[in-house]
Write a structure and sequence with these properties.
By secondary structure, the chain is mostly helical. About 75% of the residues lie in helices and about 0% in strands. GO terms for molecular function: all-trans-octaprenyl-diphosphate synthase activity; metal ion binding.
C-alpha cells in the first residue's frame, strides 16, 4: 500500500463524483416551505468532511470504475441522513456550536431543528423510493431504525455509571457504524453485487467502531481547537463512552475515593474539577485500553477490505482507516 494520504488526497481519487454529489445534497431538497430550505441550507453548509458519501463513492468505483449517477445520488442521500442525525443530536445535547458554527437549534429553536431533521429523513426516503430497489430501501429503513435505537440507548444509559462495554458497543453500532454500513452496502446493492455484502458490511462495521472509539478517546486526550469542543464534554453530558466505562471499571476496586469521584460526576454531570477527572481517566490505563481496541477494530476493517476488489479505490478506503487511526498518535 502507498504512504499515508491526507483526507484531501483521498477525496481527490473521486474528485469529479464528489463535486457533483456535494451539489446534490442541497439540490435534492426541493421543499415548498422556505423555512425548511433555510434551515436545511444552514446545516448542510456547516457540514463536515462528507466522509460517509465519500465512502459510498469510493465503494461504487471500487466495484465498477464508471461515473454512476445513481451512486452519486445515493451518496448525497447518505449525507442527508447523516445531517439529520446531527441536527437531532444538537437538540438532545443542547449544543450551541458545531464545528465552530451556530447550530440550527441555537439559530432558530429546538422545535424548528427537530422538524427540519425529520424532513431531511423523510426526503431521504422519498429519494430512495426513486431507485425502485426494494433491497436498497430495506437496507436504509432497517439501518435508520438501528440509528434511532442507538441514540435512544445512549440516552437510556446517560448518567449511568453501571453502563458496561457491551452497552457501549451496542450504542456505537447504531449511532455510528450503521450509517457506514449503509454507505458501503448500498453501493453494492445498486450494482447487484450481493456476494460482496458481507465483506463490505464487515469493513464498514469495524471501521465505524474504530472511528467512534477514537473520537471518544480524543475527548480526553485531543486538541480542543481541532476538535471544536472542550475536553471532557462527554463526561459533563454523562455519555457512557468507553474511556469512562473502563476507568470506572479499573477504579472500582481501588483503595482511593477516585471511583466515587468519577461515579458521582457521571451521575450528576457536575464537573467543576474537570481537570482532575480528566487526569483520572488518563492515569487509569483506560486510554491505552481504548486505543488498543480502536487499533484492533481498524485491523479487522482492513482485513475485510483485503477480500474486496484490489484497485486504487480500495486503497482510498484503506487510507481512510489509516488516517483515522493516525489521530491516536
Amino acid at each position: 500500500m502507498n504512504d499515508a494520504m491526507s483526507y484531501a488526497e483521498i477525496q481527490a481519487i473521486v474528485d469529479e463524483d464528489f463535486a457533483i454529489m456535494d451539489k446534490q445534497v442541497f439540490g435534492s431538497l426541493n421543499s415548498k416551505v422556505q423555512l425548511v430550505m433555510s434551515v436545511s441550507k444552514h446545516v448542510i453548509d456547516a457540514g463536515g468532511k462528507r466522509m460517509r458519501p465519500l465512502i459510498t463513492l469510493l465503494t461504487a468505483r471500487m466495484l465498477q470504475d464508471i461515473q454512476s449517477e445513481q451512486a452519486m445520488q445515493l451518496a448525497a442521500i447518505t449525507e442527508m441522513l447523516h445531517t439529520a442525525t446531527l441536527v437531532h443530536d444538537d437538540v438532545i445535547d443542547a449544543s450551541g456550536l458545531r464545528r465552530g458554527k451556530p447550530t440550527a437549534n441555537a439559530t432558530w429553536d429546538n422545535a424548528t431543528a427537530v422538524l427540519v431533521g425529520d424532513y431531511l429523513i423523510a426526503r431521504s426516503f422519498n429519494l430512495l423510493v426513486g431507485f425502485n430497489n426494494l433491497p436498497l430501501l430495506k437496507l436504509f429503513s432497517d439501518g435508520t431504525c438501528d440509528i434511532a435505537e442507538g441514540e435512544v440507548l445512549q440516552l437510556q444509559h446517560q448518567h449511568n455509571p453501571e453502563a458496561c462495554e457491551a452497552d457501549y458497543m451496542q450504542i456505537i453500532d447504531g449511532k455510528t457504524s450503521r450509517l457506514f454500513m449503509m454507505a458501503t452496502k448500498g453501493a453494492a446493492l445498486l450494482q447487484g453485487r450481493d456476494e460482496l455484502l458481507d465483506d463490505l458490511g464487515a469493513f464498514a462495521y469495524h471501521f465505524g467502531n474504530a472511528f467512534q472509539i477514537i473520537d471518544d478517546v480524543l475527548d480526553f486526550s485531543g486538541d480542543m481547537v481541532i476538535m471544536g469542543k472542550n475536553l471532557g464534554d462527554d463526561l459533563a453530558e454523562g455519555k457512557p463512552t468507553l474511556p469512562i466505562i473502563k476507568t470506572l471499571e479499573f477504579l472500582k476496586n481501588s483503595a482511593s475515593d477516585d471511583y466515587d469521584k468519577l461515579r458521582i460526576a457521571v451521575q450528576t454531570g457536575k464537573v467543576d474539577d474537570a481537570a482532575v477527572l480528566i487526569d483520572l481517566v488518563r492515569q487509569s490505563g483506560a486510554i491505552e485500553y481504548c486505543k488498543n481496541q480502536a487499533l484492533e477494530q481498524t485491523r479487522l476493517a482492513q482485513e475485510a477490505l483485503a477480500r474486496l476488489p484490489d484497485n486504487r479505490y480500495r486503497d482510498g478506503l484503506y487510507q481512510l482507516t489509516k488516517l483515522a487511526s493516525s489521530r491516536l498518535s
